[in-house]
Design a protein that fits this description.
The complex is a heterodimer. By secondary structure, chain A is mostly helical. Chain A has 6 helices and 2 strands, in the order E-H-H-H-H-H-H-E. The chains are: A mainly alpha, B mainly alpha. Chains A and B meet through strand 1, helix 4 and helix 6 of A and helix 5, helix 11, helix 12, helix 14 and helix 16 of B.
Amino acid sequence: MTDNDTHVRPDRDRPRSTDETVPDRPPTATGDARQRRTGHVHASADGDPASRLRTDGGAADSHRTDGGRTDVEREREIDYLDVEINLLNPATPFMRDHLRVIWIGFGVWALTTFGPITATAIAPDAMTTTLPVIGFPFHYFAIAIGGPTAALLLSVWYARRRDRIDEKYGIVQPSADAPPDAEPDAEPTTAVDGGVEP
Amino acid sequence: MSAVPTLLQADLLPEGLEIGFKIVPAVIVVGMMTLFLGVGFAFKVADTDDMWVAGRSIGNLENGMAIGANWMSAASYLGMAALIALSGVYGLAFVVGWTTGYFVLLIFMAAQMRRFGKYTAPDFVGDRFNSDTARALAAVTTFLIGFVYAIGQARGMGLVGMYILGDITQVVPIPGLDAYQAMMILFMLLTIGYLTLSGMLGATKNMALQYIILIGAFLVGLFATGWAAGYSTFVPQLQYGALITALGAEFSAPFAGGSYYLWIATCFSLVFGTCGLPHVLVRFYTVENERTARWSCAWGLFFISILYLSAPAFAAFGTSLYGDQVGAVYGDPGMSSAAADVIVVLAAQLANLPPWLVGFVAAGGIAAAIATVAGLFIAASSAISHDIYANIVNEDATQRQQVLVGRLSIVAIGLLTIVFALDPQQPIAALVSYAFSLAAIVLFPMFFLGLWWENTNRQGALAGMTTGLAVWFVPMLNEANFGILTTPEGQTAFVPFLETWMPAIGAALVGVPIVFAVTILVSAVTDEPPLRTKQMVRQCHSPEPMPKNTTAAEVVADRTGETPADD
């Protein structure tokens, strides 16, 4: 990929955590990861106030205990490059919140998608009852109209829940109206490069 | 279901459909095609970056419509109503599968894919598993999907084209070609001509337009048909319910058109095929941020649902009108699959709508086919030019060479599609569902495991994809698809047992767990992937927004100062 727009990158001169450069290691070290947090300026952090909060420098290192801290505070100390992605055992507060929504949504989806036809196979008589007014046999209505509608409602539900999680963790998406690229002065330490992929 | 192979060279002639040249509908189609070509020319580009992902500058509403247009192929527009008319509740597996799959795509993959930041499925697979072989396998799969999918579209174009342009073999005799074949070739050539001229930027702009034309034509047709025939007034999507009991047990009895197992298998294939389809996934790279990727997925489902909630109503109206005016729908001979595949147009015609209105509905069917073939061929040609040619064959390829190879591969896949669509053995929806089985079996496990299990490694992916391709071919060959093999007399498959439990139309129910198991097992017994690969996966799940045009790999390289891993 080659792109020509100039965009802002986090500083490349900051001190790196030594762990990041060791070749490979067991991916279970999530507990240490939180303490190893070194306060990176993340890629997209340039320019927007919420993410500037994340440039917390070494401050995070002074909080080594989990006691009494909120999810948001703990989340800020996490470097995602150090945590294992696990569908069943989320390693970070954000992932926990997100996966909860994902699994609830998936469960409801499985019910609304495969439930009606399965119920029809189990109890054909009850399911084929004709509905009053609209005249549909119930199974037909539940499959043809219930299935797609449920998926649509679930999608809107998910997108909103995910927006709310973003809000909780102070995540602001870059937008075309105010692209991070447009504010080159936002971070004094930014480097500019052409973003050319090797 | 109606999966009965027809005889070789059987004339596909939808009974009841008025076949003949009609000037106003012809003008509508020609005008539409000219509009597409005109817009295509306006956005004609020579730069490969623009060609592949439209410069990544599209908002969620427009992207939602593009998803809708890309999605609503002849299979949705024509084929779904056909299966609902012929196979009743079994046909609803398509309605459910092709809509609800988007939710799974949304929660597990849309934003993560966007963060990974790769143009195409082969790029994703190649970079995630750090292997040119994996990339090539994904490219071949993408090409196969585009090809199998397009056969169904070609069938739809040929059948509907006959209503509009009639039997062109009577005007220009073409030896060896019947009316359907000549029409299908004509429309495929038009599509290929359009595609070779315009890159994806043009196609994307067109797709919002095509969605509007498409949904407009379908809904106007549905409302007018329901109104003229006296079935419905303002909400045909609900009012067809009152008609169902009168349509006979075949239309609504739970398992009259296919067993419970077949329903589940088909629906499962379609759902997870949705999540593995390259031409759907590429839509998430064209948006400005992850939130837009999520909401455009929701919008896409909304735009799709409008059609999917209406299709059963069209099927009900068409079935009723056919039964009144043409002959018995079910039993022997019953409605042919060719007539069923044009049931949407047929219903409008049988309701005595004026020819221009029926023509408008027919034109929508053709727009649906063109829009989808456009997306598929772009994905397939980019797989060839970008992933096989530029990455493996000629690493120093210039942009010019890449564009040339891309265009040549569009012509190649087009010709291949024409050859196999000369005598399509299945209805549109069934043909398309084979492509979904393939996407579900080969690509979905790679995407899902690749994004959610960081220990999935190169060996696992290679083993999984190879197994997947083999697993997909088994039921396809067993049921003698593609016309290469012929099944024994009186049988629709070589091994009836396999046909029952692993039907080609729903092969993913068995195939996906097999590929998951192989991939996980091989990954577990071989070396873990390098840290950098794992970090790429982790980066896909971080809540930190990523700027446009940045990939997870770049963020990782930038943060760790490492050059790309080379294990």
